[in-house]
Amino acid sequence: MNDQVLNELYQVVLDRKEHPMEGSYTCYLFEKGLDKILKKVGEESAETIIAAKNNVPSDTVGEISDLIYHLMVMMAEKGIPLEDVLEELDRRSKKIGNLKKMHVSDHNT
Length: 109
Prior knowledge:
Number of domains: 1
CATH architecture: Orthogonal Bundle
Strand content: under 5%
Number of strands: 0
Radius of gyration: 16 Å
Mean pLDDT: 91
Low-confidence stretches: none
Structural class: mainly alpha
CATH superfamily: MazG-like
């Protein structure tokens, strides 16, 4: 997969925000506001964790996809361009030796 798929999805999300369509789930989320969007991000995060723990790859892929979509809706609501996130990921991927110090709680898991 390349950035094109993510860019196309994000453009659809932005278009729904600017040009609401009746019956669109994306428009419903924007209509309900940030609290609803963040609730869905949290739910999808938890569902992604559970799917990964249950070790069913197809379920995990589906939940990750749902999470990415809801994160994009959140980004659009907050005015965060996708390119900012992609640039940050690119910047991080070029770092060498970027292992962060573990917190005490990390040692217990």
